[in-house]
Amino acid sequence: MDNLIGRSFGGYKLKELVGTGGVASIYKGYDERLARWVAIKVISIATIGGETEETVLARFRQEAQAIAALRHRNILTIYGYGEEEGYAYIIMEYVPGGSLKDRVDAGKPVSWDQALTIIIPVSQALAFAHEHNIIHRDIKPANILMPQEDWPLLADFGLAKMEHSTRPNLTMPGQVLGTMAYAAPEQIQEGEIDARIDIYSLGIVLYELLTGKLPFDGETSFDFLMARLTEPPKPLLKSNPNAPDIFVPILNKALAQDPHDRYQTMIEFSQDLMEARYKLGRSAATRPRGGRYQGATSVMNTQELQETTVLLKLTESGHQIDINDQSELLIGRAHKNMVPDINLTPYGGTEAGVSRRHSRLFRKDDQWYLEDLGSTNGTFVNGSRIEPNKVVSIKEGDKLRFGQIELEFGLKA
After folding, report:
1. Average pLDDT of 296-321?
2. Catalytic: 223?
3. Which end of the chain has the lower number of beta carbons within 10 A, N or C?
4. 133 vs 175, higher pLDDT
5. Residue 353: which of 333, 372, 371 has the closest Cα?
6. Quick one: which of 402, 375, 373 has its CA closest to 275?
């Protein structure tokens, strides 16, 4: 495609080419009306690779429609779409931080908490997309943008498929879409696909983050592709003996060759990842290192920490909730045999919109923190909502709200 720097589309002037892929080029552009930078994805409306103009344009429109239908914190925002002078374009928010691919060093694993800080929000974004009958089909590090270290954005729905849609298939016979390193077996075999291919692909990304490697080998591209059809993935702990073994059954299930043996929904996958983070977090918070808590920098000793007890009081009634003396507490409501450390069910938690695993309250050194665990109705500190999977510090007297239940936070030495 021609160099379009200096041209304008829809009032946005193209300033810099920032990426290319497939038939599209992505430019950094400037919105003079709102004084902001944007990303502009442009394709030439022409016959490409044997595909008709109508097919190319239909797929591009489908991408724009897919993104526009999904308003989620961890999905890239679209501002507009247009066609003019032989080109079609999508106007999107500009993310200067690059992608996950840019931030991961080949061969070097990241810590489990770094991996989950990225993968859990992406899994929630995909679960949201699946609820709207949209399958991404091209999950890979290059399509996970990183505005901040702890804020992933799912991008590039160019291969998205509308599940249960009556629209015609926009791929040609024999054309395998998606980056092959992350493709599910049924994509390679060109079989029937559904949302479980996104589970498989996200599982490979998680495996790569934890090990610095892909779960399959091959001397040739053909061998590499065939490996996932005939062999199980390389054992996680063989690729990285230091990876937490809690991920072994999770990845074995996510990367099962047969879709029926995988997680059946992205929500199930996401819930197991959150449970793993909760268990690993508890272990890290209570593991002593040389008589001090891991990462300790304060002058308090271990005994002094153990003698600090959380007090939570319902602001409406003044009733104080009994709490075990722990350094980490799960807040939520009881369900079947699962009872959280702070169970809000007796206080109207179900009616107040409290999730089963709503928030995590934990202590590190002499400071207490609160984390929202992707709750449905939000976690609030003094009226301000905590973003999903974000951690904020709290102090005595703070008002904590879980759904519609508000508690006052206190400490007792």
Report:
1. 63
2. no
3. C
4. 133
5. 333
6. 373
What is the 3-state secondary structure of 347-391? HCCCCCCCCCCCEEEEEECCEEEEEECCCCCCEEECCEEECCCCE
Which of 138, 156, 198, 272 is flagged as catalytic?
138
353 or 190: whose pLDDT is higher? 353
> Which element (helix H / strand E) includes 21?
strand 12-21
**Which tokens belong to 331?**
């807040």
Closest CA to 162 of 185, 203, 193, 202: 193
The two three-digit tokens of residue 363, written as one number: 């202590």
Q: What is the CB-side half-sphere exposure of residue 107 using CA atoms within 13 A?
A: 0
| Token representation of residue 189 | 């075999």
Q: Are 163 and 134 in contact (CB under 8 A)?
A: yes
Give yes or no for residue 209 having a pLDDT over 90.
yes
Which value, to the nearest 10 degrees, does the dihedral of the CA atoms of residues 47, 50, 56, 62 take?
Answer: 170
Query: Are residues 129 and 138 in contact, defined by beta-carbon separation less than 8 angstroms?
Result: no
In degrees to the nearest 10, what's the CA dihedral of 386, 388, 392, 396?
60
Rounded to an integer, what distance in angstroms lies between the CA atom of residue 57 and that of residue 61? 6
Dmax (CA) of the chain: 73
112-131 and 196-211 helices cross at what angle (nearest 10)? 170
Residue written as tokens 């999950």?
A: 139
Q: Is the per-residue pLDDT at 172 higher than 50? A: no
- Give 70: exposed, middle or buried? Use CB within 10 Å, 0-12, 13-18, 19+: buried
Structural contact between residues 79 and 132, judged by C-beta atoms closer than 8 angstroms:
no
Residue 124 structure tokens: 């929630």
The rounded distance, in Å, linking the Cα atoms of 281 and 113 is: 8
pLDDT of residue 87: 87
Instruction: Specify whether the CB–CB gap between 334 and 321 falls below 8 A.
Output: no
The overall pTM is greater than 0.70 = no
Ramachandran class of 145: left when φ > 0, alpha when ψ lies in -120 to 50, beta otherwise: beta
Average predicted confidence (pLDDT) for the chain: 81
Q: How far apart are CA 262 and CA 259, in angstroms?
A: 5
Cα–chain-centroid distance for residue 184? 19
The backbone torsions φ and ψ at residue 306, rounded to the nearest 5 degrees and listed phi first, read -65, -25
By percentage, how much of the chain surpasses pLDDT 70? 84
